[in-house]
Amino acid sequence: MAATTAMKPPHMETPSQVAREGDAAETSRDQAVVPRQSYNTGHGDFCFGRLFDKDNLPGYELQSPNGEGSNFRANNVLFIEKDGFQRSGHFKFNELPIEVRHRILDLLCAPCYDEDDCIEIEIVEFRTRDITAPGWWNQTFEQHQSGLHRCLRGPPSVSDEEQRKQFAEEQRRFRIANMPHPNRTNLYHMSTKPRLAWKKCGLFCFFTKDWSMFELIRNLSNVSAQFRQEFGDVFWRRTKIIMSVFDPNNDILSGFLEERPAVPGGIRHLEFALDFTGHIIDLKVKEDQRRFLIFLRTISTLSNLEQLSVSIYTEENQLCEFESESETRKQLEACRVLPVKEEFDLWLCIDASDSGRFDSSEEMNKYTEDLEAKWCPKIRELMLPNTLRAPEKLTETEKYLQSRPGQKSDAVKQTDNLEG
To answer: Is 403 left (phi over 0), alpha (psi -120 to 50) or beta?
Structure first.
């Protein structure tokens, strides 16, 4: 039986009808396109460095496709099989036991590992910093020139017009390099350093970033949800986070961990700084106190933290605040509840008051070094976590009371106070 189809008689369309239908078709196509979402495994994005204008970067040498060359030894290169072995078909990686897959991924991450002498393990080191902080990258040319002239104590060696062009180009490249990942809701920049690419400069050799490894890491993180989960678990299980100066108005660590709920257990070493000289933080101010305690509460969630390193910048006339019963002292004492397992390091930098009283810079340096040697042990004792303190000798009655069921330890009670 033949099928029949009723057809409408042809008709002429006006230009306005064609335009409306074209717009409707374009709208429907836009609505049909669903943007690809990154796999959500709790590890966040894997964007740890950006390579931009690589051909124009000073001192940058291009790698050959196979990684050969006198000045570079890349990691992400094609492996040449020995004895004429020929591959056939795909390797069924997912059918290997999970322990073997983790071992392979661990070897794959090896260029990113670095030795941590204090806790004696190999870790992946990350540096995070606030990309909204003021600096030359968001200054006008005139502001930059004013500071430059003060430093150089004289006119620049090139014309203003040439320097203006150079400054604009440096700002453009910096902004491209530090453009935040689109999935990040918190504004910060994060970098790490694959370390097995050698660069030779005369008689010296030094490590340089292997940009091919960054590309490999990003590509691996987007193979599949399962592969991203396993790769992320291995990549993040031994990490060190180096933060910039803690700013109460932009808590980078909290935002960093908020987007990466699967990584806190792998953070073994944390490093941050407190700057009391530049009015960045004032622990006598209630709002700064509240945000500092939130910051400490975030650190207390790092269950496997083995080492904590803190740098403090202060002025000589502020030292009394670390000794008296001041709010600053009370806030720093709250660091005692942090669950650090192995090591607590404190680095102290004191800015001497009234530098004009010294006859030479050597005399001033000697004076500040003596101050730092005197005060660093005091402040370290003030902040030393309870987990690293020698246990106090208890009386028989106190031992009995602590052994009773339902009794909280002092550390737990102090943690409750911090959360309160």
So the answer is: alpha
User: How does DSSP classify residue 250?
Assistant: B
Burial 142-165 (b: 16+ CB within 10 A, else e): eebbeeeeeeeeeeeeeeeeebee
Q: Which two tokens stand for residue 317?
A: 């006339």
Residue in the structure block whose two tokens are 């490249």: 173
Provide the token pair at 140: 């006008």
Q: How far apart are CA 25 and CA 20, in angstroms?
A: 9
Cα separation, 140 vs 164, whole angstroms? 10
pTM to 2 decimal places:
0.71
Residue carrying the six token digits 């390091």: 345
Residue type, position 361, single letter: S
Query: Could you read off the pLDDT of 7-16 as tens digits, one per residue?
Result: 333 344 443 4
Q: What's the DSSP call for residue 247? A: B
The reported pLDDT for the residue numbered 9 is 39
Element (H, E) at 267: strand 267-275
Is the per-residue pLDDT at 334 higher than 80?
yes
With residue 273 as reference, give the H or E element that holds it: strand 267-275
Percent helix, strand, coil in the chain, to 5, is 45, 15, 40
Q: How many angstroms separate the CA atoms of 212 and 218, rounded?
A: 10
Which pairing describes strands 343-351 and 197-201: parallel, antiparallel, or unpaired? unpaired
Q: How far apart are CA 353 and CA 358, in angstroms?
A: 10
* Interatomic CA distance for residues 34 and 343, integer angstroms: 49
| Helices first, then strands: H and E counts in the chain | 12, 9
Q: Residue 39 carries which side chain, given as an amino acid letter?
A: Y
Q: Give residue 52's pLDDT band: very low, low, confident or very high (50, 70, 90).
A: very low
Question: Are the CB atoms for 126 and 190 separated by under 8 Å?
Answer: yes
What is the CA angle 273-274-277, rounded to 5? 125
Query: For every residue of 338-396, which 3-state class applies, written as one string?
Result: CCCCCEEEEEEEEECCCHHHCCCHHHHHHHHHHHHHHHHHHHHHHHCCHHHCCCCCCCH
CA angle 194, 199, 202 (to 5 degrees): 155
pLDDT tens-digit profile of 89-103? Answer: 788 888 999 999 999
User: What residue type is assigned to position 410 of the chain?
Assistant: D
